[in-house]
């Protein structure tokens, strides 16, 4: 048995649109739980702050995630337009943040609540 099963596109001829859609679904399945954990921390632990001075290390410790997973979740949050990452007054690249360096996470909660569905576990 192979360590990892082949992807559908490796076995079947798929058109580019279907390949792109499958890649998007796989990416969402990978990043979705990471993003949910980060959002849960921002909403339930911090009370939806508009701006937070933090670091990847701090977010990882607070959410119980690996620093690279937090970086990935943060990058997805920025990509969706729900947040900005800044170092000082300059925008920062969420994917290239160093684990220990502080940055400002600026959330757009109005956009977030308007464009996302959030299910609470009771």
Question: How would you describe this structure in keywords?
Answer:
alpha+beta, 51% helix, 13% strand, elongated
Walkthrough of the structure:
By secondary structure, this protein is an alpha+beta fold. Helix content is 51%, strand content 13%. The chain is built from five helices and four strands. The protein has helices spanning 8-11, 16-45, 56-63, 67-79, 109-115, and strands spanning 51-54, 83-87, 90-91, 103-107. Strands 1-4-2-3 form a four-stranded antiparallel beta sheet. A hairpin with a 2-residue loop joins strand 2 and strand 3. Helix 3 crosses helix 4 (67-79). The model has no long low-confidence stretch (mean pLDDT 89).
């Amino acid at each position: 048995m192979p360590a990892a099963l082949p992807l559908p596109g490796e076995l079947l001829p798929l058109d580019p649109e279907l390949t792109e859609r499958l890649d998007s679904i796989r990416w969402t399945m990978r990043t979705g739980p990471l993003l949910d954990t980060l959002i849960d921390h921002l909403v339930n632990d911090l009370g939806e702050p508009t701006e937070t001075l933090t670091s990847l290390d701090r977010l990882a410790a607070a959410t119980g995630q690996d620093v690279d997973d937090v970086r990935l979740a943060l990058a997805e949050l920025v990509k969706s337009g729900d947040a900005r990452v800044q170092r000082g007054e300059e925008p920062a690249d969420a994917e290239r943040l160093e684990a220990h360096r502080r940055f400002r996470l600026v959330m757009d909660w109005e956009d977030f609540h308007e464009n996302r569905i959030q299910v609470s576990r009771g």
